[in-house]
Amino acid sequence: MDISLLESQTWKAINGQDETALQDLLILVAKHLKVTHIAVTKPIPPQVDGDDSQDNVVRSPSKFMPLYGAFGRETCESPPIQDDFNKAYWVTAKQNGVFQTWAPRWTMFSRGNISEKARILELPAVASAVAEGVEDGRGCTAVDLYAGIGYFVFSYLKAGVSKVLCWDLNPWSTEGLRRGADANKWRAVTHDGGSGIDHMATNDARLLIFNESNEHATARLETLRTHLPPVRHVNCGLLPTSRGSWTTAFAVLDPTAGGWVHVHENFELSEIVDRAEGVRKEFQRMHDTTDYPEHAEVVLEHINRVKTYAPGVFHVVLDIYIPPYLTATCV
């Protein structure tokens, strides 16, 4: 990686220098670290700049501050066009043997998720779905409803999942996702906004990318389901809560095979166990409203504490197993 990202507190400590001295310092820092670019990172603001009523749903790093090196255009078309992508500065990092690519001026990169990426790579439930898919010859599919630049998407692919379907609202994220897939030599196809999507699942692409709201995921899956391996894993990776995607996650899982939903949430330390059980009960309620004649238990298999999000608040991932609710003859 040829960029160094400084924490905002580090920047405050050196920002009192005059401009000439500061540039001389940055040149020395770049030379010492063997990087070509330096910037200041700050937390992704929850609201759009200048509008406290509008959520920053695309997780744009609007507080990003370039210090050294050319980071590309300061503005772009909305939505960005190919020329914007071509002239942006792109960075590639390697974690867990997987390349990830992003444009730091336009897209966030979360270093703190590295342990969760590694966990997905080795997760027994993922290995089980892959093995079952190999045994029955159908393969398996995963869905990431908040894909970003491929944080967890690429872990599923490296673990052997046949195909991953991805949703993200930020076109810079989906472009980074496409470039990252290319760097890892995984073929990707991006939905171009047209009405026909059957072709996306009938070729050898392992990554199907949708630059749109995941509210469309259920309808997309119903169109593509007969062309895809069964969906066995769904990732719901939005913080501080992914609640808005739970119904979709349940709906896109294969109803005859069942599978796992991985729910990302921020919980206070003292409430983790109780609130995790509350999430499990929500999925149990969904399962109980199906026409399946027998009661089947939704299981909270694991609570993974990823990192602290704020004092006393943890980013957790809940691994929830959803049993089948249709027999194969009903499909």
Automatic annotation (TrEMBL):
Domain of life: Eukaryota
EC class: transferase
GO cellular component: cytoplasm
Reactions performed catalytically: 4-demethylwyosine(37) in tRNA(Phe) + S-adenosyl-L-methionine = 4-demethyl-7-[(3S)-3-amino-3-carboxypropyl]wyosine(37) in tRNA(Phe) + S-methyl-5'-thioadenosine + H(+)
Residue span, SAM-dependent methyltransferase TRM5/TYW2-type domain: 29-324
Sample GO molecular function, one term: S-adenosylmethionine-dependent methyltransferase activity
Enzyme Commission identifier(s): 2.5.1.114
Record PANTHER family: TRNA METHYLTRANSFERASE (PTHR23245), TRNA WYBUTOSINE-SYNTHESIZING PROTEIN 2 HOMOLOG (PTHR23245:SF25)
Protein name: tRNA(Phe) (4-demethylwyosine(37)-C(7)) aminocarboxypropyltransferase
